[in-house]
Amino acid sequence: MGASGAGRSGVVVRMLKRAFFLLFCAVASLASAAEVSVKDDAGATVRLARPAQRIVTLAPHLAETLFAAGAGSRLVGTVEYSDFPEAAKKIPRVGGYSRLDLEAIAALKPDLVIAWHSGNTPAHIDKLRAFGFPVYVSQPDRIDDIASEIERFGILAGTRQVSDEVARRLRERHAELQKRYSQRAPVRTFYQIWKQPLSSVGGKQIISSVIRLCGGVNVFGQLDALAPVVTVESVVAANPEAIIASGMGEARPEWLDDWKRWTSITAVARNNLFFIPPDLIQRHTPRLLDGAELLCRHLETARQQRSK
Q1: Taking the model in full, what pTM does it have?
Q2: Closest CA to 218 of 230, 231, 200
Q3: Is residue 80 domain-shared with residue 203, that is, in the same domain?
Q4: Under a CB-based contact definition with an 8 Å cutoff, are residues 55 and 105 in contact?
Q5: How many domains does the chain have?
Q6: 205 and 132, same structural domain?
Q7: How many CA atoms lie within 13 A of 29 on its CB side?
Q8: Using omega within 30 degrees of 0 as the cis cutoff, is the peptide bond preceding 85 cis?
Q9: Residue 143's closest CA among 214, 213, 58?
Q10: Structural domain of residue 160, as residue ranges?
Q11: Do 145 and 67 reside in the same domain of the chain?
């Protein structure tokens, strides 16, 4: 082949490469603009004409989970106490999860609102739908639900490359903890959310799933309420072997030691009074497994105390 023929061949090859590149870009663009849909935790199908670009979350754990799904850059509004990761602190506030500023939400012109079933009022959710905003309702009551939610957020935001991998690692970590602890000798456990009113967790609350994961038995697991109010007398009668408290911040709550006066409780007699930071155990996010590891270690300590 002559020089001119080789030159024409090179031009053709470059043209074909450019054509394939443009075709790839067109397909990618269509994919990013394609309709997406998922079922939320209320059983409703949420459909978007294209992956969401302007998302508002109505609870702190929802902002955190959205970041975990690789979609933090799409978050344009959230509520008070949305403080993890660090970037979440910079997102504009639209009130608190129980006292939303609906006008502020509307002004952000979201193409997706993510609500919390047990935290936001139904009236607020209905109002946002009446405004025409697509609303995804979240209520992860089991550890497995967190991974599923991350995947669904990834679909809605078009970030599946990140979200699917995060969900996979979360399931692997969950399985490892389950293998290590779930068959250990049962430990009767009282989980205390707060002192006044004295409140715990019912069997349907996600913390009950964590207790079971660690081989524990929630002494109030028979109750249907997510955060039932209980009495001191009922705790004494249940005689837990471990008492675990959360409180409001990073410091161990002083009221945990109030149980020391009830020396008939096995947890008190064996000094099995434990603390877990609330952000690690009371938020339905990937960090729940950090809290689970702490809880599992506490229950293991309670088992070891039996031989002393």
Answers
A1: 0.84
A2: 200
A3: no
A4: no
A5: 2
A6: no
A7: 6
A8: yes
A9: 213
A10: 36-167
A11: yes
In DSSP notation, 78-143 reads B-TT--SSGGGGGSPB-EETTEE-HHHHHHT--SEEEEETTTS-HHHHHHHHHTT--EEEE---SH
* 124 and 219 inside one domain: no
pLDDT of residue 47: 97
The pLDDT of residue 30 is: 45
Among 115, 144, 167, give the residue marking a domain's end. Answer: 167
User: Residue 138: beta bridge partners?
Assistant: 116
Per-10-residue mean pLDDT of the chain, 308 residues long, equals 53 55 46 82 96 98 98 97 96 94 97 96 96 96 95 98 97 97 96 94 94 97 94 97 89 93 97 96 95 97 91
Q: Considering the domain boundaries, does residue 247 fall inside one? A: yes
pLDDT at 299: 98
- SS3 assignment, position 272: coil
| Per-residue confidence (pLDDT) for residue 16, from 0 to 100 | 52
Residues 198 and 150 in one domain: no
Residue found by looking up tokens 């979201």 in the block: 110
